[in-house]
Design a protein that fits this description.
The protein is mostly helical. Helix content is about 90%, strand content about 0%.
Length: about 200
């Protein structure tokens, strides 16, 4: 959905200094979230690739492949921690910005401008809510993926052998299945993050 630049400029002027600062902070946070989500998505793929490479190795020493996989697990844990923290921030500080925006819109005396401002607010908040929902879903799906990775790592830690790898194959398959769910949520979040970031930017079109 497109908005006329003059309308956007007018709304930003009406919102005033305090809200303007909040808008800039939220826009910056959305940009940071998008960059972090991109890195988290790449980290998930790297961990899964290392795991699959280990299970597909048919000859030679399995230890180097296992160690490569093992180094990826704490990185995925860090990505999961970041996702949980982002959800908490969006539910608290992020939503306060929209509360301030709503109060400003409600106080507009010009009915025509108030309706346009409300439409604009609703559109941005809808995109923001989608980001929040997809991050929540990612956080929940992360738990299953991390659980699989952790169990595989523990199982193989003292049994890095062809027999040990064979024993975890079903869990590896489950990890691949969990990854697809997490990745779908992350890609959806990235798409909405970009929309929200652009909507909050003074250069939004």
């Amino acid at each position: 959905m497109k908005y006329h630049p003059l309308l956007l400029l007018g709304l930003l002027t009406v919102l005033g200094g305090t809200t303007q600062a909040s808008q800039e902070a939220l826009a910056s946070s959305m940009q940071e979230a998008r960059l972090e989500a991109t890195r988290a998505s790449e980290q998930l793929k790297a961990a899964l690739e290392a795991l699959n490479a280990l299970t597909k190795q048919t000859q030679g020493d399995l230890r180097p492949a296992y160690e490569t996989f093992a180094t990826q697990v704490p990185k995925v844990e860090a990505a999961a921690t970041w996702t949980r923290a982002r959800v908490q921030w969006m539910q608290g500080d992020g939503r306060r910005y929209f509360g301030e925006w709503q109060k400003t819109v409600d106080g507009l005396g010009n009915e025509s401008l108030r309706k346009k401002a409300q439409k604009r607010l609703d559109a941005v908040q809808k995109s923001y809510d989608k980001v929040f929902t997809t991050f929540q879903a990612s956080g929940e799906q992360f738990r299953g993926f991390l659980s699989d990775l952790g169990d595989i790592q523990k199982t193989l830690a003292l049994d890095v052998t062809p027999g040990g790898v064979k024993a975890v194959r079903s869990t590896v398959s489950h990890a691949n299945w969990n990854f697809r769910g997490v990745n779908r949520s992350m890609q959806s979040a990235l798409k909405e993050l970009l929309k929200t970031e652009q909507a909050l930017s003074p250069e939004a079109k």
